[in-house]
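Below is a concrete protein record.
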Amino acid sequence: MALVSRYKTARSPYRVQVLDRTSEILQVLAARQGECSLMDLCSSLSLHKSTIHRLLMVLEQHRFVEKDAESGRYRLGVRLFELGSKAVSVVDLRKCCRPFVSRVHQETGETTHFCLFDQGELLYIEKMEPERSVRMACTIGARAPAYCTAVGKAILAALPEGEVESIIRKSGLNPMTKNTITTLAGLKANLAKIRARGYALDDEEKEDGLRCVGASVRDHSGLPIAAISVSAPAFRLTDAKIPVVAQFVMRAAGEISAKLGYALAPEQAVAMGAV
């Protein structure tokens, strides 16, 4: 059950057991990033073999999972890719952000990400990276916690304190590296700095040797719904280079926000370079 618990969706008074179990099967298969045996699924979900088998047969019929004829192991099916592609295609935000992500990528020569804020986590929906020997492992469709990423902290800094505390209660502050902020007081102090300067910095907090600069994107109502960032090895994203990269990132974040209908205050527009 531990493998699945981190993928649980928000609690709802409306529950359909068969749908919950089906969702958990798909989540386990996604987490394994490969093929999975029937017994692996039984062990992960603590469900009887016959129950898992019945669900897999229906999922296979609808092409949500595929069974390898030789090994008998299961993997995610192409139908999920088809539906996922259609879902992404209707997210106007991805289409809206792409030109700005491309521009920041060209300005900095480093990996540029665009992420949606979803249930306290960051969902990566766009990525452009340079042709270099050292590249970023994060992929489109991946998720990351908010407290140890530049995109996440940029969004947390724009949220009410009570909402930040609620998110941290759910996610915890688990150390990813020796630089990860692991206390609520420390995180709040860091968020105050972000609000003051307009951008967030992941200083090897999620991954050793990796730095990232991010800024939040707001919708027409002013809510932080996404973030754009630049990631690079620490030896390339030096202390001297961070403010320069931050200007590119903040300008793009401001322009995307404006395109979504958010009216920047004059001082914000100047700080983000949007005017």
Strands lie at 65-67, 74-76, 111-118, 121-128, 143-145, 200-203, 210-218, 224-233. The chain is about 45% helix and 15% strand.
